[in-house]
Amino acid sequence: MIAIRKELSLIMATIVLSAFSAQAENWGFQINPYIQATTIEGDAGIGVINAEDVTVDFDKILETLDAGAMVNFKGVHRSGWGFIVDNAFMDLKDDIATPRDGIASSRVRQGVLQVEGLYTQKINQGNFDYLFGLRWWDNDFDLDVTLPQVEQDIAIRKDEDWVDYFIGARWTAPINRSWSYSLRGDLGMGGADFTSSFEGGVLYHFNKKHALDIKYKATFVDVEDGEQARVGYFKYDTVTHGPVIGYMYQF
């Protein structure tokens, strides 16, 4: 799924750039690779396994991180209409010793691909953006338990993906010649019963093309499918949050 996600993001970016290459003078683009010191908190359940009050802090994520990527790409036309594509995923692996010399190997892959449209309006010295879009969640869970006294290993696999729609808004305004601030929020639902994202922070502008993006971001999701403690049950009621730092290039 990670390979598919990478290819999909590359194809989307290529299509967008090709479609607007003929009228590049009417468009402004920015690309912002970033990292987030992520903490995941909430409740989760898979099949007969129901883990309440799950907390995975940044130290644990950093310790078990096998792969990850986070990037935001934005384009705005001189008319005020535009788009944003944000892709973030983490691939985590961990081995845990169990009683009686057993080993439990776990792997969690969480990916969020967000595609949104926007309309920006100039208000005094700031910009107000009206947002609408889709958020695709792709979560894969693998658990393998090996017990020396049992001939057959225990394997649990659960792949869950769903799409939510949302509406939101963003306000951006300058503080002085070098600094500006930004606030953003959205609310939605779809495959999940509820989803939301909020962020706020500042940008330090080295010049007109380069800027440092510093903010705090939290993304909420509440999804539940199936009957608790039954095969096929899935619950993911969490908030993924933490400080973000990115490097923005505008062209």
Question: What is the H-and-E element order?
Answer: HEEEHEEEEEEEEE
Strands of the largest sheet, in order across it? 1-4-5-6-7-8-9-10-11-12
Q: Which percent range describes the beta-strand content?
A: over 45%
What's the total count of β strands?
12
Determine the N-to-C terminus distance: 31 Å
Overall mean pLDDT score? 80
Helical residues, percent: 10-25%
- Count of helix runs: 2
What overall form do the CA principal axes indicate? elongated
Main beta-sheet annotation: 10 strands, antiparallel, barrel
Q: What would you report as the Rg, rounded to the nearest angstrom? A: 21 Å
Weakly predicted, low-confidence segments = none
Structural class designation = mainly beta
What would a concise description of this structure say?
This protein is mostly beta strands. It is 10% helix and 71% strand.
Layout of helices and strands, plus pairs?
Layout: H1 2-20, E1 27-36, E2 39-46, E3 49-56, H2 58-64, E4 65-77, E5 81-98, E6 102-123, E7 126-146, E8 154-174, E9 179-190, E10 194-205, E11 210-225, E12 234-250
Antiparallel strand pairs: 1-4, 1-12, 2-3, 2-12, 4-5, 5-6, 6-7, 7-8, 8-9, 9-10, 10-11, 11-12
